[in-house]
Write the structure tokens for this entry.
Amino acid sequence: MKAPLNDKGVISRYREFLPVGAGTPVVSLNEGSTPLIHSPRLSAKAGAEVFLKFEGLNPTGSFKDRGMTVAISKAVERGAKTVICASTGNTSAAAAAYAARAGIQCVVILPAGKIAIGKLAQAYVYGAKVVAIRGNFDDALRIVREFGGVDGVAIVNSINPDRIEGQKTAAFEVIEDLGDAPDIHILPVGNAGNITAYWKGYREFHANGRSTRLPKMAGFQAAGSAPIFFGKPVEKPDTVATAIRIGNPASWKGATDAAAESGGCIDIVSDEEILAAQAWLASNEGVFVEPASAASVAGLLKCHSAARCASCPFSTAVRPGAKVVLTVTGHGLKDTETAVRHGNFQPLEADATLEAVRAAIA
Ligand code: F0G
């Protein structure tokens, strides 16, 4: 039977790979099916065929929707009346939207003053209870874990395995679009759920005979928030890419396993590299992503430079024709403040006449 019009989300498309049954109520906003955009200028720079998996085109503007459709559907199935999460902004936006869709309450715990305005607006508008704590994301997640035992309350951070299950569907889509897995997959790393999810997705489709190979997984942390790269928690994480401002990631082992098992790496990029990559991508490829997402692009450029890390997968995997996929995780419109501030943008001013406008742009 043809799926009903309103049912094209990741649960309906990948049901057999997800922990859902006939009795699971599907809470969906038609997430997923995001475009894999060929990127000619990045390809020229990298000496490989580079594609952007633009996850900013999900319903709430980030990849979090893939995991949230599964986490909220399962929470409702188990009788939850409230969902709760810690967030640097995107998880809370997705949780609030899917909870609204399900008709249940959502509580989000956020580090005060460190959430991009677009994301904060989303949590409010979708109707969540917003608690801003005097602490960072790691403090917020500690509080959320303490909620774990409360009846009727479901945690929808990626410590909930349903989130990882939903997010792995992005790897399925990449394989379907390319006809096989890419040679290298690059993505930003914060709490490390997404790199864990992609690696799981790639392995499952490979085991299922849907791809002939596995990609090398390369994860990039912001230099000021790079616990995995440095091998120890960072007490006061800092970066302009607030989405990945995390000092003690929950899926730490998932990230190191993905890098080690695939022959990839976990590396760092500076805030300057992130902001330069964000601006470059928008003005050269027409794709506006948030700062954290630009860590993928900055990472690719670093892999291709002399500054690359000792275990750089590029030294062995990249040749002309090799396929490299970059996940760009969130839409640039979520954080226009950072883009405008760092770009130092000023309009050209002119009187309201054709001559004055011509003179201004000359
Ligand atoms: N990119 C964006 C835009 C994000 O929002 C996040 C994480 C990441 C990358 C990193 O993904 O945590 O799976 O390694 N955002 C979380 C949040 C922490 O609360 O929205 P990760």
The mean pLDDT is 95. The CA atoms of residues 34 and 55 lie 6 Å apart.
